[in-house]
Amino acid sequence: MKRALLILLSSFISCMTLAQAFKQLEGTVSYVTSANVYVKFASTRVISPGDTLYLYDQNRMVPALKVTGISSMSCICDPISDFKAKEGMKVIFVNQEQHSVKEQKEITPSLISPEIQSISQSDTTITTTIITQRKQSVRGRVSMASYSYLSNTPVDALHRLRYTFSLNARNIGNSKISAESYVIFIHKPGSWTDIKENVFNGLKIYNLAVSYDVSDNFKLTAGRKINPRLSNMGAVDGLQAEYKSGSISTGILAGSRPDFNDYGFNNSLFQYGLYVSHDKAVKDGTIQTTFAFVDQRNTGYVDRRFTYIQHSNSAVRNLFLFGSAEFDLFRIENEVTKNTPKLSNLYFSARYRILKNLSASVSYSARTNIIYYETYKSFLERLLENEMQQGYGTQINYRPVKNISFGANAGYRKRKDDPKAATNAYLYSSFYNLPFLNSVTLSGTFLETSYLTGKVYSLSFNKGLLKNKVDATLAYRYQDYLFNRSEASTIQHTGELGLHWYIMKQLSLSANYEVTFDDTYNYNRIYLQLSKRF
């Protein structure tokens, strides 16, 4: 009892001391995305980009968010370490211009007895350490999977094994060093000769990088990594650096591209680029714009040179806009080199939440084949003949009541020399929390191209078994395809059974069996996966 009272009194004194030493502003998390956190204050007059927002937890101020942009009432922030923000959560901005931590420590001894003083000093020390300390966060997954294909056709059976390792380790050993990876290894029984000749016939490294936080605003990354601000560029094998100054981020990168044959390492494919990005928080969201320039080479000769523009905008409540464009700055026409900009890729999408339970989106794309003039020399003429392909897409989702949802999406793609446009439509309805089932989904897919017309109808059931430790799925699909040139129709029936067993908290086993049959043949697919998260 005495100990509890001492701790309670110590907590009260710590709070009073902090209130005297620091000027605090309380904010509320208003919106959370995969990349940013938005916090609303009564005013952001004393807050600047680069400031830290804290979570008050058990009498300690734990650093939670780093401010990257501000408006009159809101801040756009990046999470610190593995902090998980939720809408409605309270955070604190501390203005330390009035008093120092030293003054706080000088006040404490005169207020409390020696026993309480030791507790309070301990708390003060921990508080000071946590504010500056980087916290390690390690997450990852290891999995083994097998895929088998068997049929009564003349085609031989196929068996394939896949091993996957992914890792995201932030602030290793509470340091400034972080590491990430996504690596898979695939092989077929009896195919070791190909692997021995070239390990990259089976080994695929999509991400393998180490980063170092030189400061809160300056970061270096080495290894293979796709820069999220330059995702269209693909992976970079080399060095990347980014510096933040308020709402402006400036970055450079240099290295090589993965080999175009086996995705291995190829230092002949040198590339470099630079970008400038602006992030601005507004009342209901954020505005982000990135400009980039990239030069890609093959054995010293220009392979591709382009500029990239990307813009995302959620300034209007419930409306999200995204657009990107690529302009090639190098091309060869009739053996003449030209450097005038030419649009090679354009994409725009808009998503609007009309009501709480109703949302819709539209998109437009226009793209040509990406031309690497040195890499694609052997079939360059064929690629250059293709015209720009344009496409439109739309999607709508509606949940009239809690346990029912409907949705539809449709697409249209057309190239100038195509004899017929490609169209597709998908409709679905789902019902949840039924008396004996978790969910039931009914869907239909309709597609039409210059060579194929098809209809696919599907019905699937999902149910939790053994106190929801096993997730079971049973599905049936009816497929009707008409090949326009031969006027031959193929009707297929597909049945699927899937089980996902949560063996332990981080360990799971998946098994999936699918059989497809028509009037002549049957096709069997078996997929097994054992996965361990950590």
Briefly say what this structure is.
By secondary structure, this protein is mostly beta strands.
What does this structure look like?
The protein is mainly beta. The chain is built from five helices and 30 strands. The strands form three sheets. It has a 22-stranded antiparallel beta barrel. It has a six-stranded antiparallel barrel with strand order 1-2-5-4-3-6. The chain has a two-stranded antiparallel sheet with strand order 18-19. The longest helix has 20 residues, at 2-21. The radius of gyration is 29 Å and the shape is globular. The two termini are 40 Å apart. Residues 1-23 and 96-132 have low confidence and may be disordered.
**What share of the residues lie within helices?**
10-25%
The beta-strand count equals 30
Shape: globular
Our measurement of the CA-to-CA distance between the termini, rounded to an integer number of angstroms, reads: 40 Å
Overall mean pLDDT: 83
Determine the number of helices (DSSP H or I, runs of at least 4 residues). 5
Strand content: over 45%
Oligomer classification: single chain
Our Rg estimate from Cα atoms comes to 29 Å
Taking pLDDT < 50 over at least 5 consecutive residues as the criterion, the unreliable ranges are: 1-23, 96-132
Summarize the main sheet.
Answer: 22 strands, antiparallel, barrel
Structural category is mainly beta
List keywords for this structure.
single chain, 534 residues, mainly beta, 22-stranded antiparallel beta barrel, 6-stranded antiparallel β-barrel, 5 helices, 30 strands
